[in-house]
Design goal:
Shape: elongated
Distance between the termini: 51 Å
Largest sheet: 9 strands, parallel
Radius of gyration: 21 Å
Helix content: 25-40%
Order of helices and strands: EHEEHEEEEHEHEHEHEHEHEHHEHE
Bound molecules: phosphoenolpyruvate, manganese (II) ion
Length: about 350
């Protein structure tokens, strides 16, 4: 439920609304807006007496949020959420961000080289899993904590921000120490204890759509994170399971405008997992930017043929550089620009 204050409502009137919500046993979240302030009532169990709030001084109207996800919805917050990362990088504003790097962190040389290569091409965030959710327990599972150290090293060398996956609540604690963005992978989209831990970790979260998750389920999973007090959530379309094995997944481009319509949260696209095929990643990355994605996440490896995971969908560094040149033009056509890495200080 959203209590919209009148334009010019006083601080005392707003405080009174907050106090009444608390007295009723719910949480209040004050959201100052350009025109008027709104106060969100969090935890509505269906027993809220709206008339008590409607009658308070300074209240213009009480809106019942119709969607099952509340704080994530556009009804709750009309303006897009802009997530501020370090180094002046933002997600969800005018800029389109590129997150790039290998599927997994494999060695210091591999991740540092990849970081330098993707930075050179124009990425602002380095990706790479220290922990990997793999379909088979016999395949490379990631380096774990030593992999995180290597990511920290790559950040030092390149100045890029780091996005890496946490697979369980304990992993969230480790990843939070190093990462600028904590990734929750597709397989864990509905791991609710992990989502709650992510909601309390204090770092922005990249939440990937589950393999068979509807958009509503994706938004409800994001709601778990916001409900814990973390409002910095970036959604990610990474393809859903289809019946056609021509591609690894069915890359649901439509999800981008659909999510933008339903939610104020930014959404990026991962055409690497979305297609699973190197030569399909490039056109779908271009398409995602054209469709309004707030960023792209692309797997790039210094030597994809030697990659320990997802080599077949990883771009060669020069392919990524070409892709970045193309997406700069596409972004401009739709009134956006691609975020550029800050110059490296001497
Ligand atoms: C990844 O980003 O490397 C990954 C495992 O992705 P997903 O969770 O989308 O499969
Ligand atoms: Mn991968």
């Amino acid at each position: 439920m959203l209590i919209v204050m009148r334009h010019g409502a006083t601080a005392e009137e707003i405080e009174r609304v907050v106090a009444v919500i608390k007295e009723m046993g719910y949480q209040a979240r004050t959201m100052p807006g350009a025109q008027r302030t709104a106060v969100g009532l969090v935890g509505n169990d269906g027993r809220v007496d709206a008339s008590r709030l409607e009658g308070l001084a300074g209240v213009q109207e009480v809106i019942h949020v119709s969607k099952p996800y509340k704080q994530v919805s556009r009804e709750w917050k009309a303006e897009p959420t802009v997530i501020r990362l370090g180094g002046g990088v933002t997600v969800g504003g005018a800029e389109v961000v590129a997150i790039a790097g290998p599927c997994s962190v494999e060695s210091e040389k591999q991740i540092v080289t990849a970081a330098q290569q993707v930075r050179e091409a124009g990425a602002v965030i380095l990706r790479g899993g220290a922990w990997k959710p793999r379909s088979s327990p016999y395949t490379f599972q990631g380096l774990g904590r030593p992999g995180l150290k290597l990511l920290a090293r790559a950040r030092e060398e390149s100045g890029l921000l780091v996005c890496t996956e946490a697979m369980d609540p304990e992993g969230v604690r480790w990843v939070t120490e190093v990462a600028d963005i904590v990734q929750i992978g597709a397989r864990n989209m509905q791991n609710y204890s992990l989502l709650k831990a992510a909601g309390r970790c204090g770092k922005p979260i990249l939440l990937k759509r589950g393999l068979s998750a509807t958009v509503t389920e994706l938004l409800l999973s994001a709601e778990y994170i916001l409900a814990e007090g973390n409002h910095d959530v970036i959604l990610c379309e990474r393809g859903i399971r289809g019946f056609d094995s021509t591609t690894r997944n069915v890359f649901d481009l439509t999800a981008i405008p659909v999510v933008h319509n339903l939610s104020h949260l930014p959404i990026i696209a991962d055409p690497s997992h979305g297609t699973g095929l190197r030569d399909k990643v490039i056109p779908m990355a271009r398409a995602a930017v054209a469709a309004g994605a707030d960023g792209i996440m692309v797997e790039v490896h210094p030597d994809p043929e030697q990659a320990l995971s997802d080599g077949a969908q990883s771009l060669f560094p020069d392919q990524f550089a070409q892709l970045m040149r193309e997406v700069r033009v596409i972004a401009e056509v739709i009134g956006r620009r691609v975020a550029e890495p800050a110059p490296v200080s001497a």
